[in-house]
Amino acid sequence: MSNTRQRKSSPVKAQTTPQKEEEVQVLNTDAVKGSGQALPGWLWRLILLCVKLILGFLFCLHVLTPVLILTNPWIQSKAVFLNNFRWPPFIDVTKPDEFGLGDSVRNFYLQVDENSKVGVWHLIPQSDAASGVEFNQYDNLLKDGKPIFLYLHGTSGSRAGWHRVQLYKLLVAMDFHVIAFDYRGWADSFGVPTEDGVVADGYFMYKWIRERSGDTPVYLWGHSLGTAITTKLAKMLCEKDEEPLGVVLESPFTNIREAASKHPFTAPFRMLPWFEAVFLDTIDLNNISFTSDKNIAHVTTPLLILHAEDDKVVPFELGKKLYGIASETRPTHSGPLEFISFNASYGYGHKLIFMAPELPNAIRKFMDTCEGERIQNAQGM
Predict the structure, then answer these.
(1) d(C-alpha 160, C-alpha 152), whole Å
(2) Which residue among the candidates 128, 182, 201, 311 is catalytic per the annotation?
(3) Is 113 a catalytic residue?
(4) Is 201 a catalytic residue?
(5) Annotated catalytic, 311?
(6) Tens-digit pLDDT profile for residues 71-117
């Protein structure tokens, strides 16, 4: 009887052991789910949506954008000049007093040619502004002997750009005239911008000043893309024996290809094999080169180059490189050449060099150099 009980009890034990193991496994699975390691369905759907959006963005960035540029190379002209981009978008450049410039700024317009009409600001020196001169007398003031700066701005915005206005204030406070204008296609100026076109606008403005300024010294000041325009204009003036007394280049570059290849906008594309063909060669198709590295060899007037080490738009290395090229290629009889760098710790970047406390002294020192060069050349004649 005892043997029979053992045979009957043996299957019972064999059945109970697997059941317990199964129960343990079920309990362990539930514990894993309860620990949060299994993602809810809505989170999986969200992740999938994000992946689709990222892939769609990369497709547009690296496939559709190049195709769009290759089939519409004129887009590159818009990208270089950015003349239709203004921030804030709704500003009235006809009212310079609204930009903190007081009521001593004259806004007017000049017809360059049948394809261009430019909007202009004339800011008079602080001492003249204090005397309450009427607008119709501003042209006569250009003969008062106080230095005149023709300012040529960079891409986007207008003559009313904030950082541009701050530089005007500085120069006016130093008792200088400032003539600032918008090239064709910018702000309220009429026309379509091209490399030769914006340089022609600059030449027209320079001639307009010289016709009214007598022996008053005239300087060119260019910033960013404006340095390329200024350099090409200065080359033209030197070749015509109409050179300004001096030229200031703020945040310059060597040529448009190098500038574009290092611009933040092109950063996502630089590693792609067709980068040069899509983003650089198409600029050439628009007849835009702005080869300051070649033009500067023909600028014989005194040159002052300013660049901040932390410039993220036009890298410091390009300004330094242009200075090196100018040192090597300008004729031996050219005026003095100076390069002033601003430490990255100051945070001046691309637009804030006007904030440098040492800038006014640097400007006056440069102008003294230019005046000394002029006297020396006059005695040599």
Answers:
(1) 12
(2) 311
(3) no
(4) no
(5) yes
(6) 777 888 999 999 998 877 889 999 999 999 988 999 999 999 999 99
